[in-house]
Amino acid sequence: MRKGSVFSNATTRGDRARLPGIAAACFVIAIVTAPALAQVGAAPAKSASTPVAAQKPAAQIDTLRRIRDSGVLLLGVRESSVPFSFLDANKQPQGYSVDLCLRVADAIKGELKLSRLDIRFVPVTSSDRISVLLDGKIDLECGSTTNTRDRQKQVAFAYTTFVAGIKMLARKSSNVNSLEDLRGKRVVVTQGTTSEKLLRAMNDERILKVDIVLSKDHGESFKTVADGGAVAFLMDDVLLYGLISKSSKPDDFAVVGKYLSVEPYAIMFRRNEPQFERIVNRALVDLFQSGEIRRIYAKWFNNRELTVPLNQYLKEAFQAPNTYPAWP
Predict the structure, then answer these.
(1) pLDDT digits 0-9 by tens, 72-92
(2) Which of 50, 188, 253, 290 is deepest in the core (most CB within 10 A)?
(3) Can you spell out the DSSP letters for 112-168?
(4) pTM of the model
């Protein structure tokens, strides 16, 4: 399988060795208002000019046929969703979700009996990831996207691969520890995320009079807090821990407050493609049943930089694969 990238500074990498259901009630009871890139065998990557079948309206796209005809799989990746999907020092996509998508890519390659499959990484953001997918510019979104009921009206989700919860990031010196501490202050959220929707709802319901600042990605949100442009940043806890771990002064920041929601993450793709969905989910089930998912998890969430224990919700998702959306 060959890999290319549309990131302007990205270069082709050499091969690396492969990395060796949450019940709906859990979301209601647990926290209703409370919480690398493994490469499949490769040859040199195709250039950015590699032809891809002409785009059709989303409803007409036959993803498997297009992949078979073009020999190209388009993966949507993020620039700063550490440790799920981000760019490393060499501007290469890395992360837990990227690893999982590459395993899915291997399954697609085998199902279609392709002698090679070129992987093209396409940058997406929180605000454009769904439109980019529906426009046919990517085939799978490999980031940190929460499966929600609203999003299910537009797109499909594979089995849950992570469960997070929304909390707040703040400077330790800010004395921010709860929602009430945000009253009348400036708070940043990444545009197009469930955190933005949640903050707006709480701001109205509790009359917090929060000045909401929108940023284009998580890295920019973190920088806003670091530079004093906002007192806190609301986002999924695991992403906040990842951002702190990558900062130059991690001891200056903390993840605070009670869990405000439960966020099941999943790979996103277009709706009404049962054969494609079957291949994606079967690849994930193979990882779950073999236990290899835990080794991939440990690589990204149990290391010197970041330690996030495997929570009970995710254990259940690995044992009983599901596509339950976030609650409510």
Answers:
(1) 999 999 999 999 999 999 999
(2) 188
(3) TT-S--EEEEEE--TTTHHHHHHTTS-SEE-S--B--HHHHTT-EE-S--EEEEEEE
(4) 0.76
